[in-house]
Design brief:
This protein is of the alpha/beta class and about 325 residues long. The protein has helices spanning about 10-25, 60-70, 85-90, 90-110, 145-165, 190-195, 215-230, 245-255, 285-290, 300-310, 315-330, and strands at about 5, 30-35, 50-55, 75, 115-120, 170-175, 180, 205, 210-215, 215, 235-240, 245, 265-270. It has a domain at about 5-180 and about 215-240: NAD(P)-binding Rossmann-like Domain (Rossmann fold, 3-Layer(aba) Sandwich). It contains 11 helices and 13 strands. The chain is globular. It binds nicotinamide-adenine-dinucleotide and 2'deoxy-thymidine-5'-diphospho-alpha-D-glucose.
Length: about 325
């Protein structure tokens, strides 16, 4: 039994990881989460109290983080400001949480010699052309586009420097776009599903040809656990499930699966600096650690996700109106 500290464990991917860890191991989990608009304690409800401790706080609070890291065997760092559209309008919290927060955590794991896994994104590599046969690998150059991705790139660089200069025991993973339960309704897939459930037409940015490489959040969790258990210290692993789809195809799939006309969506203003395509080559993770995704079929995972949102309106409805009001101001 180990003691895991999970930052951002009340957010989308963090809460999925906490469920996964409790279901698949006997570890104790302490969640540190500030409960911003993106954090939701309801995402952790039903988990056994003996296995889970929740602490509300800021990952950039050095004293609090030092106390929590001192009693942990491993730290898994999910806490972040995560939404590109917010980062374009309000970049400051992204610098605070993603850069200063990661720095604060690094200083604590350095002091207490605790293992860290830093959760990052494929967006640090920028974007690819639609017809480019290449995919991102661990040696792709960093080329972030947005305030969000640049602060995540900065956090990765801090981790690399603390590994090399101070010998901190850390791994990094860069994952592609996640979908699944507990994802905030500001994000693409849950926004369109919950729009349809409320009789609002789905909204596609620009012409919808932008490509994202989709992976179910459970598959992200199994990969992170595998890296924690068998990954080599100092290494970076890319996580992806060969799930490339353009946004128009995804909207049409959701409409079809929910019994609507495939053309019943609106094209709205495009995102500034909108990355064209992401694609992950996860050969290293698969060959070195033997990882495989469980949701190899995107449509199966998407259908389960639609069912989850249909069944959990109490979880997402409180955030829906404010989210749509924000998008309406942006013309999106
Ligand atoms: P999210 O926005 O759903 O959740 C973020 C969580 O962090 C929330 O619970 C929030 O309350 C918490 N948080 C924010 N600021 C904090 C602070 N200062 N101190 C403590 N807690 C704070 O994000 P997500 O989509 O679950 O992403 C989690 C991590 O995974 C991020 O690091 C993100 O960069 C990375 N990631 C996300 C995706 C994706 O598709 N969503 C893909 C790859 C990597
Ligand atoms: O690639 C990993 C990244 O994936 C993570 O690091 C980010 O935290 C996560 O938010 C996600 O970033 P994206 O910007 O790709 O995700 P988002 O859900 O915001 O948008 C997905 C695509 O859909 C993108 O091309 C923009 C488009 N979009 C989005 C919304 C919200 C629309 O067309 N309509 C919409 O309403």
């Amino acid at each position: 039994m180990a003691r895991y500290l999970v930052t951002g464990g009340a957010g989308f991917i963090g809460s999925n990881f906490v469920h996964y860890l409790i279901d698949h191991t006997d570890h104790h989990v302490t969640v540190l989460d500030k409960l911003t608009y993106a954090g939701n304690l309801a995402s952790l409800s039903g988990l056994p109290e003996t296995r889970l401790t929740f602490v509300r706080g800021d990952v950039a609070d050095a004293e609090l983080v030092d106390d929590l890291v001192a009693t942990a065997d491993a730290v898994v760092h999910y806490a972040a400001e995560s939404h590109n559209d917010n980062s374009l309008n309000f970049p400051e919290p992204f610098v605070h949480t993603n850069v200063i927060g990661t720095f604060t955590l690094l200083e604590a794991v350095r002091k207490h010699d605790v293992r860290l896994h830093h959760v990052s994104t494929d967006e640090v590599y920028g974007d690819l052309e639609l017809d480019d046969p290449a995919r991102f690998t661990e040696s792709s150059p960093y080329h972030p586009s947005s305030p969000y991705s640049s602060t995540k790139a900065g956090s990765d660089m801090l981790v690399r420097a603390w590994v090399r200069s101070y010998g901190v025991t850390a791994t990094i993973s860069n994952c592609s776009n996640n979908y699944g339960p507990f994802q905030h309704v500001e994000k693409f897939i849950p926004r369109q599903i919950t729009n349809i459930l409320w009789g609002i037409r789905p909204k596609l940015y620009g012409d919808g040809r932008n490509v994202r490489d989709w992976i179910h959040a459970d598959d992200h969790s199994s990969a992170v656990l595998q890296i924690l258990e068998a990954g080599r210290a100092g290494e970076t692993y890319l996580i992806g499930a060969d799930g490339e789809k353009d946004n128009k195809t995804v909207v049409e799939l959701i409409l079809t699966m929910m019994g609507q006309d495939t053309e019943a969506y609106d094209n709205v203003a495009d995102r500034s600096g909108h990355d064209l395509r992401y694609a992950i080559d996860s050969t290293k993770l698969r060959t070195e650690l033997g990882w495989r995704p469980r949701y190899a079929d995107f449509e199966e995972g998407l259908s389960a996700t639609i069912d989850w949102y249909r069944d959990h309106e109490d979880w997402w409805a409180p955030a829906k109106r404010a989210t749509e009001a924000f998008y309406a101001q942006l013309g999106q």
